[in-house]
Design goal:
The chain is mainly alpha-helical and about 220 residues long. The chain has a single domain, classed as Four Helix Bundle (Hemerythrin (Met), subunit A), CATH 1.20.120. It contains six helices and no strands.
């Protein structure tokens, strides 16, 4: 029962997580952004399929239950690390990413400390929504990197100059529409990331409250 299809999908997703960073080591942009985006989307799809198939085929195992949240956290943590590393270090991006990374480390340590106690720290419905919002925001931010490259390339080719030296009145209408699309894509990704950070704090606090009886035992 270990090598079931749901477990294999989970293991593939876990092994794919470091691949997000590797893409930026061996490929130039925007190819690295493209490959990272596609890899992340495929991994996110398997996240839904492995759980669904495990329930439908009644192939739920302890190994799968243990690896599934680890694979999710690995994908999110490495993806955020890459996105922040290749960003302009805007506080609107760095702050929610820091909140998410801190929570994931804190709850992982909490789960390890609680161990085999009677406290139930299994994944909740809200935590699943948290993971979904994280994956959507990260996919949008990877897509923003892809779109930004082609928008800037298009404007430079059409205008024949540096985009930073142009006023909106000097840029043709198509270029303005492209810049608007890039602006809304980036900001929608940031909004979703902030929503993820808020859900991250809420679910993290819920887990902490459940673990308080064990922490207060003083043993």
């Amino acid at each position: 029962m270990i090598w079931t299809i749901p477990n294999i999908l989970t293991i593939i997703r876990l092994l794919a997580a470091p691949g997000l960073a590797v893409m930026f080591l061996y490929f130039d942009r925007p190819y690295a952004d493209w490959f990272a985006l596609l890899l992340f989307l495929l991994a996110s799809i398997t996240d839904w399929f492995d759980g669904y198939l495990a329930r439908v085929w009644r192939q739920e195992t302890k190994l799968g239950a243990m690896l599934d949240p680890i694979a999710d956290k690995a994908m999110v943590v490495i993806a955020l690390m890459v996105i922040v590393g290749y960003s302009s270090m805007s506080p609107w991006l760095v702050l929610p990413a820091t909140v998410i990374l801190f929570r994931e480390v804190f709850i992982s340590g909490l789960r390890e400390f609680v161990g085999d106690s009677s406290i139930d720290l299994s994944v909740t419905v809200l935590a699943k929504w948290k993971t979904t919002s994280q994956m959507l925001s990260i996919a949008l931010l990877f897509a923003q990197g892809v779109v930004e490259h082609y928008v800037v390339k298009y404007i430079k080719r059409k205008e024949g100059t540096n985009i930073n030296n142009l006023q909106n009145s000097e840029i043709n209408q198509t270029a303005i529409l492209n810049l608007d699309f890039l602006y809304w894509l980036e900001n929608f990704g940031l909004v979703m990331l902030w929503l993820s950070a808020i859900l991250t704090l809420i679910t993290g606090f819920e887990y902490f409250k459940k673990a308080l009886p064990v922490l207060r035992e003083g043993k």
